[in-house]
Structures are given as structure tokens and as C-alpha cells.
Amino acid sequence: MAKKESQKDPQEIETTGHEWDGIEELNTPMPRWWLWMFYGCILWAIIYAILMPSIPFLNSYFKGTLGYSDRAAVLEDVEAMHADRAVYASKLSGANLEDIQADPELFRYAMAAGKSAFGDNCATCHGSGAQGFKGYPNLNDDIWIWGGTFEDIRETLTVGIRAAHDDSRFGLMQAYGTDELLTKDQISDAAHFVLSLSGRDDDAIASLRGSEIFRDNCASCHGDTGIGDKMQGAPNLTDEDWLYGDTLEDVYQSIYGGRQGVMPNWNERLSPETITALAVYVHALGGGQASAPAEPGTPNDP
Ligand code: HEC
Ligand code: HEC
Predict the structure, then answer these.
(1) Which residue among 127, 164, 270, 282 is least packed, with the fewest CB closer than 10 Å?
(2) CA 10: distance to chain centroid?
(3) Considering the domain boundaries, does residue 51 fall inside one?
(4) How far apart are CA 197 and CA 227, in angstroms?
């Protein structure tokens, strides 16, 4: 193509009449295809400007004969989304787990809403993966202080633990040292006994002394065998899971200074449907239990 044009005799082509140092300016017309595209674009612009919102005026704008508006379209989408959510939310608020699981759409919505609410409200204390920290329980495992059924979890979230709610979950782990209920030696013996419950102690004599102290002071909450009590939030002391640590020093501190883990009641900050969604999410994290809520005296046994 380029070769063909260069073979044309420059004399045959019209010039503009301009000439510098013997170099003439040729008047080559625009290619046809380019011109048609150019005219097409102008035509398209005119039609578009008539149909769609286009020309700005001082206080408004020309709305176009089709009456289309981006803002209205977005508002419509948002309203549709709110309507969808309202349907899910009203279905969620008092629902039980079976109803939610029976409706895959609703379950998916609850899991998504629960996950995002967890990131916003819970991750600061329980960790973004709900893995927990010292004093803040791991929510992924099947070990529950207050019960791991869906209803238990929803109740825990609603009323909190040692929180401002009138029906808050409450269990007292007294400060046996600070409040001078036991001597340091007795506390040390009790700590040895507690550790022996999960095979962590080798001071048999201290353990034996501790067993009596435990029976007299601790068994009412933690159970004769140390297995715990969900109704009082007393942890199982025989398992591998420790909220406040499993060294002699940690356990001594738990008994000496007492432990009063606090979790806020969420009923004032979150809607019932968000709390339900959170309970669905936490229940599904791995350790959710299927049975009915804990009865008084239920062993704290995973
Ligand atoms: C201010 C810190 C804090 C925040 C925020 C928090 N928690 Fe907790 N949570 C705790 C503590 C501390 C405990 C343990 C209380 C105890 O010692 O019994 C706990 C216990 C729990 C339990 C009971 C676990 C069991 O074994 O029975 C659940 C379930 C729970 N939290 C879920 C949540 C969810 C869901 C959120 C977000 C809405 C949340 N937590 C936000 C501190 C917090
Ligand atoms: C009135 C009920 C009650 C009595 C009595 C009681 N505890 Fe506790 N204990 C609890 C509660 C509730 C917790 C959990 C506190 C928390 O979650 O913050 C706890 C926590 C503990 C822990 C921490 C467990 C962990 O996982 O880190 C140890 C250890 C413990 N108790 C030992 C004892 C010993 C030893 C005695 C007797 C000297 C005793 N408790 C008496 C209710 C009681």
C-alpha cells in the first residue's frame, strides 16, 4: 500500500499551493472510511444528546427524551436490596437453627451477615479467626464454657457475660488469695490438685492436700471431679483447654486473684436478626452442638 502511493507521480496530486524550499504541500483528501466514521460519530452524538440526559443548564439539565437517570437506577437497586434484606431479617430475628438451615438462601445470608458482623464487633477480643486469646475463649473448638448449642450461643450474645444486662450470664470465680479465703499454701496445694486433674502435676503430696481443699471450696462449681458446670460458667478443669493458662503460676493466679471475664451484652448494640446471624456463624465455626440448651448441673464436658 505504502509502496503503491509512493509510486504515484506527485504532479498528479493537487497541491495546496504552499511551497517551502522546493517542497510542495500536497492536498491529499481524507480517506472515505475515515470521513464516514467521523460523520457517523457526529450523528450518534446528536441522537444520544436528544435521548439521554445531556446539556447542563444553570440549575438543572436537559433530561433527555428517554428520561433515564443513573441516580434513580441506583436508588431502585438499593431499595430492591433493602427489601430483600428486610425479608431475610424478619425471617431471621426469632428463627431457630432448623428453620434457618432448611432454607439454603436464608442460611447463606445469615452466614454472610454473621461473618461481617463478627469482623466488626467480635474480632477485637476473639481474634479475626475467632481463635481467641488468653482470657478470651476460642470459638472454633467444641469446648464451651456457657454451652455450645445455637440457643446457648444466642443467649450468651444477647445477655453477655458478667455484663450490664439484668439476666447476664454470671459465675463467680472468687479471689481466694486477695480476699483471704485461703492461705497461699492452700492455694498452692489446690493449684497442684487442679493440674493433676489433667495429668499435669507430679507433686502427689501437695495434690492430695489440694484435693480436700478442692472438695470443700471448689467442687460446688467445678464439680466433684472438676468437670465444670455450664450453668455457672465454671470451666472444665480436666481437659486440655485453659482459658487463663495451664502453668502452675497461671493456675495459682486464677485461684489467688479470681477470674471475671467480661463480655458485653449485645442486645443493645445489635439487632435481634444480627445476633441470630452471629449465632449461626459462631455455631458453624466448628464446635456447634446440636442438643438442647444446658440444664442446671450439666457437666462442662465437650
Ligand atoms: C470486650 C471483649 C469481647 C468482645 C468485643 C466480644 N467478646 Fe465474646 N467473650 C469475651 C470474654 C472475655 C468471654 C469469656 C467470658 C468468660 O470468662 O466466661 C467471651 C465469651 C464468648 C462466648 C461464650 C463462649 C463459651 O465458651 O461459652 C461467645 C459465644 C462469644 N464470646 C461470642 C462473641 C461474639 C459473637 C462477639 C461479637 C458480637 C463477641 N463475643 C465479642 C469477650 C468479648
Ligand atoms: C462460685 C463458683 C466457683 C467456685 C466456688 C470456684 N470457681 Fe473456679 N471458676 C469459676 C468460674 C465461673 C470460672 C471462669 C471465670 C472466667 O471465665 O472468667 C472459674 C475459673 C477457674 C479457673 C481457670 C480455668 C481456666 O481455664 O483457665 C481455675 C484454675 C479455677 N477456676 C479453679 C478453682 C479452684 C481451685 C477453686 C476452689 C479454690 C475454684 N475454682 C472455685 C467458678 C468457681
Answers:
(1) 164
(2) 76
(3) yes
(4) 9
Ligand 1 test: best mutation among 161, 170, 230, 280, most atoms within 8 Å of CB? Answer: 161
Give the C-alpha separation, 200 to 3, whole Å.
93
Give 137 Cα–ligand 1 centroid separation in angstroms: 7
- Show the domain range for 50: 29-68
* Pocket mutation for ligand 2, best pick of 173, 201, 263 (most atoms within 8 Å of C-beta): 173
As for how many domains the chain has, the answer is: 1
What are the tens digits of pLDDT across the range 4-49? Answer: 554 566 567 788 889 899 898 888 888 999 999 999 999 999 999 9
DSSP letter (8 states) at residue 10 = G
pTM: 0.78
pLDDT in tens, 109-160: 999 999 999 999 999 999 999 999 999 999 999 899 999 999 999 999 999 9
Query: DSSP readout, 116-147?
Result: HHHHHHTHHHH-TTS--BTTB--SSSS--SS-
Is the distance from the beta carbon of residue 139 to the nearest atom of ligand 1 less than 6 Å?
yes
φ, ψ at 197 (rounded to 5°): -60, -30
Is there a domain that residue 143 lies in? no
As a whole number of angstroms, the distance between CA 169 and CA 159 comes to: 7
Q: Give the CA dihedral 16, 17, 18, 21, nearest 10 degrees.
A: 130
- Within the chain, where are the H helices? 2-7, 32-51, 70-92, 97-102, 104-121, 123-126, 150-159, 184-197, 204-217, 219-222, 248-257, 272-284
